[in-house]
Design brief:
By secondary structure, this protein is α+β, with helices and mostly antiparallel strands. The protein folds into 2 domains: 5-68, no CATH class; 86-188, Glutaredoxin (3-Layer(aba) Sandwich), CATH 3.40.30.10. Helices cover 33% and strands 10% of the residues. The chain contains 7 helices and 4 strands. The protein has a 4-stranded mixed β-sheet with strand order 2-1-3-4. A hairpin with a 6-residue loop joins strand 3 and strand 4. The radius of gyration is 19 Å and the shape is globular.
Length: 224
């Protein structure tokens, strides 16, 4: 899963039990392996390279772990991985150069169906890893985006390079018969922005005065 890091105070406390940096504080990135119950089963670090010798070593260890845990016979469907809110969703999707799928539902019963339909789509063949997902209660945060139109339950967005804005690539209703086709077409319309290398991208952002206010203070000295 993708940690929220400095965007969740409660999660930050959990992440620090997995790995702390030199100052015994939360680093910008945290890596570890967890079992199905959320218990840590590998060392922690900033990345896989802190824990494993190389990709082959990581694959070997993950194979060993996989034999220990058998899928439950009661397994019916996979959960939908979501970012906590639209603002963060657009930013995270921009960072990963991915589209953002936004589900809009005001009532609890609608949220349940929307989550189910999006989860089935997110885990369908060829789709995993192609987008981030977020659920919101209304379209208020979407209305200023380019090509926004009212009436949709699901919006697929292409975030601006620095996650400040977005363009609507596709709109769908959760009850649409061609929902999968519509969403897949929208994902296909996403184009990966040209950011340059990390130094160039960060430098341009600083020159343009772009900044991001995190929920909790950044404690990684290399990312302030």
């Amino acid at each position: 899963m993708r940690p929220a890091t400095y965007e969740s105070a409660s999660e930050a406390e959990i992440l620090k039990t997995y790995f702390r940096g030199r100052a015994s504080e939360l680093e910008n990135t945290t890596f570890t392996l967890l079992d199905p119950d959320g218990e840590q089963i590998s060392r922690g670090g900033r990345s896989p390279s802190f824990v494993f010798q190389d990709a082959e070593d990581m694959a070997e260890k993950m194979d060993e772990f996989s034999f220990v845990y058998e899928p439950t016979v009661h397994f019916k469907s996979r959960a939908l991985p979501t970012v906590k809110d639209l603002r963060l969703g657009v930013n995270v999707a921009a960072c990963d150069s991915l589209p953002l799928v936004v589900g809009v539902a005001k009532k609890d019963k609608d949220v349940k169906r929307l989550r189910k339909e999006l989860a089935e789509f997110a885990w369908s063949t060829g789709i995993p890893g192609r987008a981030h997902y977020v659920l919101v209660e209304d379209t208020k945060g979407l209305e200023d985006f380019e090509d926004f139109k009212k009436g949709g339950d699901i919006y697929v967005l292409q975030p601006e390079t620095y996650g400040r804005d977005a363009k609507v690539l596709g709109i769908a209703k959760v009850r649409d018969k061609d929902l999968v086709k519509t969403l897949t077409k929208a994902l296909d319309a996403h184009s990966v922005p040209k950011k340059g290398d990390h130094r160039e991208h960060v430098g341009r952002g600083r020159r343009e005065g772009i900044d991001w206010e995190t929920e909790i203070p950044v404690t990684d000295s290399g990312n302030r």
